[in-house]
Amino acid sequence: MTDRLAALSALGVSIWLDDLSRERLRTGNLAALVRDEHVVGITSNPTIFQKAMSDGEEYAEQVADLATRGVSVEEAVRMLTTYDVRWACDVMKPVYDATDGIDGRVSIEVDPRLAHDTGKSVAEARGLWWLVDRSNLFIKIPATEAGLPAIAQALAEGISVNVTLIFSLERYQQVMEAFLDGMERARLAGHDLTRLTSVASFFVSRVDTEVDKRLDKIGSPEAKALRGQAAIANARLAYQRYEQVFSSDRWAALAAVGATPQRPLWASTGVKDPAYDDTRYVVELVAPGTVNTMPEATLDAVADHGELRGEAIRAYAEAQKVLDDLEAIGVPYAEVVQVLEDEGVEKFETSWAELLEQCATELEKAAKGSA
Predict the structure, then answer these.
(1) What is the mean pLDDT of residues 169-196?
(2) Closest Cα to residue 34, out of 46, 48, 24, 23?
(3) For position 371, what pLDDT does the model report?
(4) CA-CA distance, 121 to 116, in Å (whole number)?
(5) Alpha helix (H) ranges present in the chain?
(6) d(CA 283, CA 304)
(7) What was the pLDDT predicted at 1?
(8) Is the dihedral of CA 258, 264, 268, 270 positive or negative?
(9) What SS3 state is found at 164?
(10) Which of 121, 99, 126, 82 is closest to 34 using CA atoms?
(11) Residues 6+ apart with CB under 8 A from 223
(12) Of 93, 120, 140, 368, which one is the catalytic site residue?
């Protein structure tokens, strides 16, 4: 059987898993995915942690200890999540070493309630960086307006950053600017740029979900013909901008002292509409120097039947035409991407609240059990 994941890696795509749980760590499943399925990185978010903690008893012992200590719910959540991330960093460390710090990364997100507060986001990034204390960590900071200066400041202090919740081309341009600013400041501060790096998580499937909903409402033959095209077109144009920025003289000055580019990371690559091929957000976005972070179901689908056709990203004129046609038919790009950014932050805030609520319940049960 063809090793499709190996072929994808050979085309310059780093395969990351968009999932983390203590069960996956304890059973050795994560290590097996690294060994057998070419997984070279991990992403997490509040939704993933909430699901992990609701699915099993893996956290019971630590929760009981935290309850005995009488810690707050907020501190308990931080202890539980950073424990998993630290463990995952240790599992991924050989990959980190083998790739000179490019891959082998594990991401943890700042409290999503801080998405619109620059100062608190920076403080949270510092706190998580110190608490996990692993060189292969990424701190996830949302690409909100308040997040942009936080991204630059974190990098300037030597903290590697996964910029999350990017939906628009304009915001992506601002993210790359924040990256360059942060790296230039880090260089002046004497940080080693060879291990200080970043990825920019550009969300994919959610764009189709929002645009298709609007096209279905329009209902014309022209609208129906545009279904399922927006997300891939948007990501392709993002890669075009990436190529422009990272071929500039400004970037060359940083590359000359060992810096590596901020790689585009395709996020939200699980297909939400069953009418679409379940590997489309992987095989249609193959490009050198990118990351694709996949839910395990998508990873399995690519391994089983993903039809790779080589590099698939540089259809820039066709991609621009898709966005132009959407605008002409009454689907305004600026409105769509703003809705998606607002909803993205809101969804993570909701998951965080659910995580806090569940943790509070578990702490209370543990306290009663030890009474």
Answers:
(1) 97
(2) 24
(3) 56
(4) 8
(5) 4-10, 22-26, 29-36, 46-55, 60-69, 73-98, 118-132, 147-156, 169-188, 205-218, 221-225, 230-245, 249-255, 280-283, 296-305, 316-329, 333-370
(6) 13
(7) 42
(8) negative
(9) strand
(10) 99
(11) 215, 216, 329
(12) 140
**Tell me, what amino acid is at 319?**
A
Contact 49, 25 (CB under 8 A): no
Best CA proximity match to 13, nearest among 280, 269, 266: 266
Has 51 been annotated as catalytic? no
Query: Of the ranges 136-140, 151-155, 310-314, which one carries the lowest mean pLDDT score?
Result: 310-314
From the list 88, 95, 105, the residue with the least C-alpha distance to 265 is: 105
Q: Which structure tokens are listed for 266?
A: 């395709």
Among residues 214, 247, 246, which one has the least CA distance to residue 229?
214
Residue 12 structure tokens? 């310059």
Which pLDDT tens digit goes with each residue over 246-279?
999 999 999 999 999 999 999 999 999 999 999 9
Q: Confirm if 103 and 14 have CB atoms less than 8 A apart.
A: yes
The residue whose two tokens read 């701190």 is 139
As given in the structure block, the two tokens for residue 231 are 């997300």
Residue 163 phi/psi, 5-degree rounding, is -80, 125
pLDDT category at 108 given cuts 50, 70, 90 is very high
CB 190 within 8 A of CB 356: no
- Residue written as tokens 């929002």? 210
Residue type, 334: A
Residue 108 near residue 137, CB atoms below 8 Å: yes
